[in-house]
Write a structure and sequence with these properties.
With about 900 residues, the protein is α+β, with helices and mostly antiparallel strands. The chain has 26 helices and 30 strands. The structure holds zinc ion (ZN). InterPro entries: Aminopeptidase_N-like_N, Aminopeptidase_N-like_N_sf, ERAP1-like_C_dom, Pept_M1_aminopeptidase, Peptidase_M1, Peptidase_M1_aminopeptidases, Peptidase_M1_dom, Peptidase_M4/M1_CTD_sf.
């Protein structure tokens, strides 16, 4: 089989790991010319000391040039193909030294060595991002997680810059040309994907954390928090570092293994493709966590959870690392679980499990019902598959499954297992059995059945409460488990029974802890209690399952879900209603009515934010098309009303304001309200740049603002972020010529033109801004001509763009905006066209097919739900 240029398979990396032992890696990067935009590349030199059982191997390198390959002093003929540099003449009776000298390219896609120029001050910033396999865009290496080496980075850069890596700089030497060379201390053994370099005139704040050690010594950890110089005024270092210290305290005790990486730097970097990356001692974060505009407590909680997720990786992932990407979940599920646990336990954000229940799990439930879902322990044959596995299964489902495991074995046994695992596998590589062995020792339980049920199967369980009653008394209560795909799992969970108090609020009157096994589980202890108004399976959110409500409970929830005191229970209940909406069991209109009637009283900012997002999703996707325009207007009007009713300056007011701006982009009749808000006529509402831009984008989307006004807004504050907003707003005008220009800016040939993909100068963030503006829901009519070009271009898009950009284009431009006729699913034009494409392209790369299959499934799901909702109520079942 001919592999795509940069792919690597599990089979060949396994073979290489058997042949090679790495003793030391040294990487020298010459970044002196980085500030010159005309210079596209930088010199890179790798020196590897290794032992080999074969005379030949290869190193991975995706750079424009390799100048030299030297083995034990002997220069070899340079042979490079498919991102691999051939290496011959290795000793099989001792150590060899391999040197590769070449040129690597600066990146604009966030992959490899990303280069960014700040429009505010013209300064240049660099950072690296490698996972899963982009270290080879920066230096020649063995790009697989199980080949770990003590690594030394040597970086030459402008003398006035700050340069950081995983370890501290051992020496800093000034050159005669205004440069400086930083030589960093050799690291403990590291996988390539977690090595990192950050360079530029970064601003920083310092902190410190220390703890007494068992041997009487003290562990001293210097803390650094870094951002671009122009963002220094917004860096709220105090809270960031406080959460950092709280996390280090908690993990130090919980893991009983001293923080292993010396110092702890955290850097907020521009145009970042992900939330954060756990490079040991040098964690990189998206700048979205540097709040330039107002931030709600929910946003701060989300940031804390990410800080602690990455910190958990310092042990889980960095110290003990998965052997290959099949076991990516080993680190991600753990970090996701521990990040939320630590946030709820050690910081002021004690409601972190509520956000997990409503927001994080929605990601898992969606992903787990796609045709492309996979077991938590996945089969990952190559790197392209690995790249796509950073998904809702690996993170959110895996973490949910661990939460269920903790409910079974108890938190102490769970942490004891983790401690054993770290000690046993420090600086090594691991697979699932290594973790299970440690957990079994600690808990005294056989976990093979648990692993089989939860890690090696797909799809969420579906659990339904069934009640039998007589004369106002519950005579039987049971939990039914659907035989989804033939998998019945064991669940330890809580069933909550609720009834109204004198004020009409739902109060939990009974809480039953039970082990659900098999298709039907009786709860005999519930017999004899008064019939509750609401029975909530998985109250407290211990297990991972779609929860169905009985008919009476559904009616109660739609009327009064928001009156429950405990936020976690509210989140579980709303999650059940949302899943029922997505499954076409609850009409979107009923969900929407419940949100609109109950959300104004919601006190948790995170729940309000997530439910407003679900409500917008219900309107845009799940509601029958004839009802949509009215619902759009209603949602915008309701949000406007509420932002005036909530406490001035509060997070809730801000959440409603953002929801208003979002809804107004699809509700032309709200334009006057938007102008009122923009004019500052809402008491206490602070019009920060983020909010102002979303209001301007709403106006432009409905044709109520033009380029002059957008330019004027940009002139108020001209930064990298506001330029992106300005770009999205400009592209978001309802104008065919604007759409054509935007399409062309992505390097895509115009409809009807010879279909050859062009270049695009846009960065990753700029691509996102263009897609957002281009695909405004109100502009579907203007986009009809792009459906065919989209399908025609798919193979070229996938081959001609880096995977990061290709995925954004394939998913972002998917023409789900075509409404079709009411009740149409199979014959919907885009469904039919996608199916035809898939049929004609069975040999297309698996990653591309996966993207298309997921878009198709989402579209079919909403079409099914719409056609169910359009049927008369009597034709639908009662259970949701
Ligand atoms: Zn992670």
């Amino acid at each position: 089989m001919l592999l795509p240029v940069s792919n690597l398979t599990r089979t060949e990396t396994r073979r290489r790991a058997e042949q090679l032992t790495l003793h030391a890696l040294t990487v020298e990067l010459d970044l002196r010319a980085a500030r010159d935009a005309a210079v596209a590349t930088f010199p890179t030199t790798t020196t590897l000391r290794l032992s080999s059982t074969s005379t030949t191997t290869w190193l991975d390198f995706l750079g424009p040039r390799v100048h030299a390959v030297v083995v034990d002093g002997q220069e070899q003929v340079v042979r490079v193909a498919d991102g691999r540099v051939a290496v011959d003449g290795l000793r099989t009776d001792g150590e060899s030294t391999v040197v590769v000298r070449g040129e690597a390219a600066y990146s604009r896609t966030g992959e490899g060595m990303h280069r960014f120029v700040d429009p505010v001050d013209g300064e240049t910033y660099l950072y690296t991002q490698y996972e899963p396999a982009d270290a080879r865009r920066v230096f020649a290496c063995t790009e697989q997680p199980d080949l770990k080496a003590p690594s030394t980075f040597v970086v030459t850069a402008p003398a006035e810059w700050q340069v950081l890596s995983n370890s501290v700089a051992e020496s800093v030497v000034d050159g005669e040309d205004g440069s400086r060379t930083w030589t960093f201390a050799p690291t403990p053994p590291l996988s390539t994907y977690i090595t990192a370099v950050v360079a530029g005139p970064y601003h920083h704040a310092e902190g410190h954390w220390s703890r007494a050690l068992a041997d009487g010594g003290t562990l001293e950890v210097p803390l650094g928090l870094w951002c671009r110089a122009s963002l220094a005024p917004y860096l709220d270092a105090e809270e960031f570092l406080e959460v950092t210290r709280q996390g280090l305290d908690l993990f130090h005790d919980a893991f009983d293994y001293p923080y292993p990486w010396g110092k702890y730097d955290q850097v907020l970097v521009p145009e970042y493709n992900l939330g954060a990356m756990e490079n040991p001692g040098l964690v990189t974060f998206t700048e979205k966590y540097l709040f330039r505009s107002q931030a709600t407590e929910a946003q701060r909680e989300g940031r804390a959870t990410t800080i602690l997720h990455e910190m958990a990786h310092m042990w889980f992932g960095d110290l003990a690392t998965m052997r290959w990407w099949d076991d990516l979940w080993l680190k991600e599920s753990f970090a996701d679980y521990m990040g939320t646990y630590a946030t709820a336990t050690a910081t002021r954000f004690t409601g972190a499990w509520t956000s997990f229940a409503l927001r994080r799990k929605a990601w898992a439930y969606r992903q787990d019902q796609l045709p492309t879902t996979h077991p938590v322990v996945a089969d990952i044959p190559d790197l392209e598959a690995a790249k796509q596995n950073f998904d809702g299964i690996t993170y959110a489902k895996g973490a949910s499954v661990l939460k269920q495991l903790v409910a079974f074995v108890g938190p102490e046994a769970f942490l004891a297992g983790a401690r054993t695992y770290f000690r046993r596998h420090e600086y090594g590589s691991t697979t699932l059995p290594d973790l299970l062995a440690a957990l079994e020792e600690a808990s005294g339980r056989d976990l093979s059945a648990w692993s089989g049920q939860w890690l090696e199967t797909t799809g969420p369980s579906t659990l339904t409460a069934e009640l039998e009653t007589a004369d106002g008394t519950l005579t039987a209560l049971r939990v039914r488990q659907d035989d989804d795909g033939g998998v019945l799992r064991d669940h330890r969970l809580v069933v909550g029974c609720y009834s109204s108090d004198d004020d009409g609020a739902l109060v939990r009157t009974h809480r039953f802890v039970t082990d659900v096994t098999g298709p039907v589980t009786e709860l005999p202890e519930a017999a004899g209690i008064p019939v509750p108004e609401l029975v909530l399976v998985n109250d407290d959110d211990l297990t991972y399952a779609k929860v169905r409500l009985d008919e009476r409970s559904t009616a109660t929830a739609l009327r009064a879900a928001g009156t429950i005191e405990e936020s976690l229970s509210r989140a579980v209940l709303w999650s059940a209603l949302w899943n029922a909406t997505r499954d076409g069991l609850l009409p979107a209109a009923a969900f929407l009515d419940a949100v609109v009637s109950q959300l104004p009283a919601e006190r948790e900012v995170g729940i309000a934010r997530d439910l407003l997002a679900h409500a917008a999703g219900a309107v845009e996707h799940y509601l029958p098309v004839p009802q949509r325009d009215g619902a759009r207007a209603l949602l915008a009007e309701e949000a406007y009303t509420q932002l005036g009713r909530h406490e001035a300056g509060s997070g809730l007011q801000l959440v409603w304001a953002r929801a208003f701006a979002d809804a107004a982009a699809r509700a032309p009749e709200a334009a006057g309200r938007v102008r009122t808000v923009l004019a500052g006529d809402v008491p206490g509402l602070q019009l920060d740049p983020e909010l102002r831009w979303s209001l301007w984008q709403a106006l432009t989307a409905v044709g109520a603002a033009g380029p002059d006004q957008l330019d004027g807004e940009l002139a108020r504050e001209d930064t990298a972020t506001t330029r992106l907003e300005h770009r999205a707003a400009l592209v978001g005008r309802p104008d065919a010529a604007v759409k054509a220009e935007a399409w062309a800016s992505l390097g895509l040939p115009a409809p009807g033109q010879y279909a050859v993909l062009g270049e695009s100068p846009l960065s990753n963030d700029e691509v996102d801004a263009v897609i957002a503006g281009l695909t405004q829901p109100l502009h579907a009519d203007l986009l009809e001509g792009y459906v065919e070009p989209y399908f025609a271009l798919l193979p070229q898009l996938w081959a001609g763009r880096s995977i990061e950009i290709a995925e954004r284009l394939v998913e972002g431009l998917y023409p789900a905006w075509v409404d079709g006729q009411e009740g149409q699913v199979e014959d919907h034009p885009v469904v039919a066209r996608t199916r035809r494409w898939l049929g004609e392209h069975e040999d297309a790369p698996a990653g591309l097919r996966r993207c298309l299959l997921e878009q198709l499934d989402d579209l079919e799901r909403v079409l099914r739900a719409r056609s169910t909702a359009a049927r008369p109520a009597g034709a639908r079942g009662g259970h949701v």
